[in-house]
Design brief:
This protein is about 50% helix and about 10% strand. Strand 7 (about 260) and strand 8 form a beta hairpin. The strands form three sheets. Strands 1, 2, 3, 4 and 5 form a five-stranded antiparallel β-sheet that branches. Strands 6-9 form a two-stranded parallel sheet. The chain has helices spanning about 1-10, 30-35, 80-85, 155-175, 175-195, 200-210, 255, 290-295, 305-320, 320-345, 350-375, 380-400, 410-445, 455-460, 465-490, and strands at about 35-40, 50-55, 55-70, 90-95, 105-110, 220, 260, 270, 295-300. The chain is elongated.
Length: about 500
């Protein structure tokens, strides 16, 4: 399977299904392209230094230097480096560490001239650097459904992108048409083994790709076969196959560049620069989106099917059967065991009354919270959580307080509710702690930051919290059986 994935990653650059994958800013090889920063905002281009223009796109490369800070202000925001702020050094971008305890600012040093490496500014196979599939650093949704811990390593993923771009460039610069045809042949063989729908053949595909002068993308391959009488839309998926694609087709940015823009200090400024200042002939050239539409071939390849297949194979190979399947049945068996145990130590009447009583308590608590939400204005989540916690503590205490004082049936009702509901009580405590952590984090989040970065104990523990609940309930029942024996010994 690893060999097949290698063939796929080496071949996908030549599928040419999205023009945005082949524009200049994607290039990462040779080394200067990976080290330098490609600026594409025309408001930040230095017109006196070398830059590159493709229709309404402008590219300029900067060398960078970085500074890392871990100090925050009273709002919890990382402090901007004072020296760069004083000298008004242009900021390229910044990155937060994985634990959000530091931030690295990347500042522009000087413009670099990479024209010796750039054969064309038009979409070209030289520029492709996307990683089609890499389960190690880009896990599927199934692999991270229980926890936020499986975030892909950005640096490792970038190295994979550099590798893809480097392999593609080495192949096309060799101008070995036979090697190219062999790679495409191997890819189609793998696709046939996997049952991927396509009408590609080696001869026509290699003819589409092999333009040895500049290796510009001359034709594009469809993501699917459109229905008869309908136009191909790269953002639409085949009927009854899967959700619509999220393919970014080139948009006319001439109008966009004539609008407002956001400065580095966060202020909104009116654009003073027009794309025609860089490309006076922009109105007489073919726009990228029109170039794409005019050059879509009749060939198609169901790329999403291939990606889904690879994800499914890796999911099956790495699936934790115990966590995903046995874990669920453990809880089902545990719940049935508690119900049977409750029935055996009491009787059917007590069990039925406890079920009815639990329903009544839930209804009363719900009405209480709704009443105070509308009348008293208590709409805070903490009010609801602490109300439920208070009720839970009272239910746990009632059997201990009323034993020998109230009728035995009354004590047994709350005793059964306590045993059955204790896992939910532990989960409630986790929920309260989690809500406090997230709420505290959000009070420190300033405008422009993402609330999704705020995580609590449930997010960090993931499925582990379920096992903690299970073990805690076992421990509780172990000690609670002493009370059950004491209750059982009381005369009717």
């Amino acid at each position: 399977m690893a060999k097949n994935i290698e063939i796929i990653n080496h071949s996908v650059p030549f599928l040419s299904q999205n023009i945005e994958d082949y524009t200049l800013e994607n290039r990462l090889s040779p080394k200067p392209f990976a080290d330098f920063y490609c600026e594409t905002d025309i408001n930040k281009i230095e017109k006196t230094r070398p830059y590159f223009v493709y229709h309404d796109r402008v590219y300029q490369y900067f060398s960078l230097y970085k500074k890392t800070v871990n100090q925050t202000d009273e709002r919890g925001q990382f402090i901007y480096p004072a020296e760069e702020k004083k000298k008004n050094v242009p900021l390229a971008y910044f990155e937060n560490s994985a634990d959000n305890k530091s931030r690295t600012y990347f500042f522009k040093k000087q413009v670099e001239d990479l024209s010796p490496f750039i054969k064309t500014v038009a979409p070209s196979y030289y520029n492709y650097s996307s990683v089609f599939y890499d389960n190690v650093n880009n896990p599927s949704g199934n692999d991270r459904k229980y926890s936020y811990a499986n975030n892909p390593d950005k640096e490792v993923y970038k190295q994979k992108q550099i590798e893809v771009n480097g392999n593609t460039i080495r192949l096309i610069t060799s101008k070995d048409s036979k090697a190219l045809e062999q790679l495409l042949k191997d890819f189609l063989r793998v696709s046939k083994e996997f049952g991927i729908v396509t009408n590609l053949n080696v001869k026509d595909w290699s003819a589409m790709v092999y333009h040895p002068k500049k290796f510009e993308v001359k034709q594009f391959i469809m993501l699917y076969k459109p229905d008869s009488g309908t136009d191909y839309d790269p953002n639409k998926a085949p009927a009854e196959r899967y959700n619509d694609y999220e393919v970014a087709v080139a948009a006319d940015s001439t109008a966009a560049y004539e609008d407002n823009y956001l400065a580095a200090n966060g202020e909104i400024h009116k654009d003073t620069i027009n794309i025609r200042d860089f490309n006076p002939n922009v109105d007489r050239e073919i726009a990228p989106e029109d170039y794409f539409k005019r050059n879509v071939s009749h060939f198609y390849y169901y790329t999403q099917d291939l990606k889904n297949l690879l994800e499914n194979v890796d999911t099956i190979k790495t699936d934790d059967f115990f966590s995903d399947s046995v874990h669920l049945f453990i809880w089902i068996a545990f719940a049935l065991a508690i119900l049977i145990f409750s029935f055996r130590v009491t009787d059917l009447r007590a069990l039925l009354f406890s079920i009815i009583s639990a329903g009544v308590i839930i209804l009363l608590v719900t009405l209480f919270c709704v009443f105070f939400a509308f009348v008293g204005g208590f709409k805070n989540a903490f009010f609801i959580l602490y109300t439920i916690l208070t009720v839970g503590v009272i239910i746990l205490l009632i059997p201990l307080i009323t034993i020998g004082k109230a009728r035995k049936i009354v004590t047994s009702i709350f005793m059964i509710i306590s045993m059955v509901g204790f896992p939910l009580f532990i989960w409630l405590i986790f929920g309260i702690v989690n809500e406090h952590q997230v709420s505290d984090c959000r009070t420190k989040v300033y405008i422009g930051d993402n609330y999704m970065n705020c995580k609590g104990v449930l997010d960090n523990l993931g499925l582990t919290s379920s096992y903690i609940m299970l073990i805690s309930t076992f421990v509780f029942l172990y000690f609670y059986t002493g009370f059950v024996k004491k209750w059982k010994a009381i005369p009717e």
